[in-house]
Amino acid sequence: MPKETVASFSKPRALPMAFGGGGIIGALGGLIGLGGAEFRLPLLIGLFNFAALEAVILNKAMSLVVVASALPFRAATVPFGAIAGNWPIVVNLLAGSLLGAWFGAGWATRLKSETLYKVIAALLVAIAIVLVIGHDATAGQPFLTGNAQMIAGVVAGFIIGIVASLLGVAGGELLIPTLVLLFGADIKLAGSLSLAVSLPTMLVGFTRYSRDQSFSVLGRNKTFLLVMAAGSIVGTFIGGRLLGLVPNGLLLPALAVILLISAVKVWRHR
């Protein structure tokens, strides 16, 4: 039997907490140009007591909403024409990420809940490390060129697709450094290109999850999902407007510590 979830309770504070939690996490993510899904997942597990797979599926649904809303927000800074002009890069990464998303979602549905908690915790630690050492990457010459770059792009996309499916995230925290370092993309362009890769990748993972009975968590928690997603969008928008207000030298280590603490709590979750 699936674990009873917060939306099944008659707690009057559940929805305001969902909106507020989504807003705070969205703002944290927006401050560094991300959607905040990596911070939302521990909240779904720890505060709202969703089972591991249900939390991942809910997080995936909210990530889809947030990323879809982010594209028009960013269009004024990075027009769609600039994204279309870099379609070979998008296709290169998608060649790996779509397959990775399908496999990642398949593995998640087959893992025992206790094992999935441990996998999630380990990936949160990995993302904390990437935030500190990879987020401030600056554009320059591509790390590789030609066939080597293409192969590396497929491999990187495959790994990112797996991580995105296992955590229910868009994968921007991994895609942006990859686009900057491997392909030499400007940081603003990389942010928009990552969205172009994330949307199809998440849809593939979502399709694979729809085959599992845990997917019914979306139907049972529609209101909760929409309220928290709305909070996330508002928070991401506000955080994006405050981008650069807090120096990354202070912000990134603090966010990494939050992820590490969250990882410990998820690891111990029963």
UniProtKB/TrEMBL annotation:
The membrane spanning regions, by residue number, are 14-34, 41-58, 89-109, 115-134, 146-167, 224-244, 250-267
Instruction: Give the subcellular location.
Output: Cell membrane; Membrane
Q: Which Pfam families match?
A: TauE
For whether the record's keyword set contains Transmembrane helix, the answer is yes
Primary localization class, coarse: membrane
Q: Which UniProt keywords apply?
A: Cell membrane, Membrane, Transmembrane, Transmembrane helix
A GO cellular component annotation here is: plasma membrane
This protein's membrane topology, according to the annotation, is:
Multi-pass membrane protein
Q: What family is this protein classified in?
A: Belongs to the 4-toluene sulfonate uptake permease (TSUP) (TC 2.A.102) family.
State the protein's name: Probable membrane transporter protein
- Can you name the source organism? Rhizobium leguminosarum
Q: What is the lineage of its organism?
A: Bacteria, Pseudomonadati, Pseudomonadota, Alphaproteobacteria, Hyphomicrobiales
